[in-house]
Amino acid sequence: MDDEYNVTYIILSGHVEVQKYRYLYFLIMFTVYILIICCNFTIVYLIWIHRNLHEPMYIFIAALLINSVLFSTNIYPKLLIDFLSEKQIISYSACLFQFFLFYSLSGSEFFLLSAMAYDRYVSICKPLQYPTIMRKITVSIFLGLAWLVPACQIAVPAILSADMKLCNLFLNGIFCNNSIYNLYCVSSTTRSIFGVIALTNIALFPLLFILFTYTRILIISYRSCKTVQKKAAQTCLPHLLVLFSFSCLCAYDVITVRVVSEFPKTVRFIMTLQAILYHPLFNPIIYGLKMKEISKHLKRLFCRTKVM
């Protein structure tokens, strides 16, 4: 569908009964989006203002929560507009940009979780060397790489897709993800190779590194005293829960693209909404409840608010 300026528009055909339930969809998603912003930035604010939280572990948590807000902002505003629009469409260039941000920020989450795993490994397994290894410059480098490397990796297949010829303008989804590959007339070997390389570098390798690191932590803490075991459990469990949650989201994204025709439209729509609903809220809840220092400051904040 081309307008007078020759802009190609993609029709987002994954919505279900949007004309009938548009205001219900909008209310639910708007409420969740506000909750995501408030919950994530509340913890980021606590980490910012309390000096005892200015440690690498909490800095990485703050970066992870900011990443969750950016991830949600890439999806929710357009989704809210679509719910109130007569036609659910997006320009092809905007679709590619959403695709780029979706996978770039997803890769950043894996890298940030890898940095957190390494931080926990050094803290628990090499406590005497921790101040020397995890310096401010090291943390800054990890944060920079966490956002820069995935962006560079995903930029290549996104750029290669820009000039691809489209034979289908109906995207089987509610936002732009790997489903855009089903729109092209022919598949590109070069793009597919870069896509596999990007997936390996920003998801598979970090995931293997995280699993290896936590395995080493568990082995060493098992051989140590109960104090070390307790510290490992308190600080590693929240990271593992977040890793499991995000890995499930990524697995769902891959599966739905591969077996898209086998999922009923309504089921796919509900599962997609759940995938983007839970995880951005899951992060602040887990870190707010499971991280002792953050939980303590949260209780003080809410108690002070009630008194006022």
UniProtKB/TrEMBL annotation:
<comment type="similarity">
    <text>Belongs to the G-protein coupled receptor 1 family.</text>
</comment>
<dbReference type="InterPro" id="IPR000276">
    <property type="entry name" value="GPCR_Rhodpsn"/>
</dbReference>
<keyword id="KW-1003">Cell membrane</keyword>
<keyword id="KW-0812">Transmembrane</keyword>
<keyword id="KW-0807">Transducer</keyword>
<keyword id="KW-1133">Transmembrane helix</keyword>
<keyword id="KW-0472">Membrane</keyword>
<feature type="transmembrane region" description="Helical">
    <location>
        <begin position="57"/>
        <end position="76"/>
    </location>
</feature>
<feature type="transmembrane region" description="Helical">
    <location>
        <begin position="267"/>
        <end position="289"/>
    </location>
</feature>
<feature type="transmembrane region" description="Helical">
    <location>
        <begin position="236"/>
        <end position="255"/>
    </location>
</feature>
<dbReference type="GO" id="GO:0004984">
    <property type="term" value="F:olfactory receptor activity"/>
</dbReference>
<feature type="transmembrane region" description="Helical">
    <location>
        <begin position="23"/>
        <end position="48"/>
    </location>
</feature>
<keyword id="KW-0552">Olfaction</keyword>
<feature type="transmembrane region" description="Helical">
    <location>
        <begin position="96"/>
        <end position="118"/>
    </location>
</feature>
<keyword id="KW-0716">Sensory transduction</keyword>
<dbReference type="GO" id="GO:0005886">
    <property type="term" value="C:plasma membrane"/>
</dbReference>
<dbReference type="Pfam" id="PF13853">
    <property type="entry name" value="7tm_4"/>
</dbReference>
<protein>
    <recommendedName>
        <fullName>Olfactory receptor</fullName>
    </recommendedName>
</protein>
<feature type="domain" description="G-protein coupled receptors family 1 profile">
    <location>
        <begin position="39"/>
        <end position="287"/>
    </location>
</feature>
<keyword id="KW-0675">Receptor</keyword>
<dbReference type="InterPro" id="IPR052921">
    <property type="entry name" value="GPCR1_Superfamily_Member"/>
</dbReference>
<dbReference type="InterPro" id="IPR017452">
    <property type="entry name" value="GPCR_Rhodpsn_7TM"/>
</dbReference>
<dbReference type="GO" id="GO:0005549">
    <property type="term" value="F:odorant binding"/>
</dbReference>
<dbReference type="InterPro" id="IPR000725">
    <property type="entry name" value="Olfact_rcpt"/>
</dbReference>
<keyword id="KW-0325">Glycoprotein</keyword>
<dbReference type="GO" id="GO:0004930">
    <property type="term" value="F:G protein-coupled receptor activity"/>
</dbReference>
<feature type="transmembrane region" description="Helical">
    <location>
        <begin position="139"/>
        <end position="160"/>
    </location>
</feature>
<feature type="transmembrane region" description="Helical">
    <location>
        <begin position="193"/>
        <end position="215"/>
    </location>
</feature>
<keyword id="KW-0297">G-protein coupled receptor</keyword>
<keyword id="KW-1015">Disulfide bond</keyword>
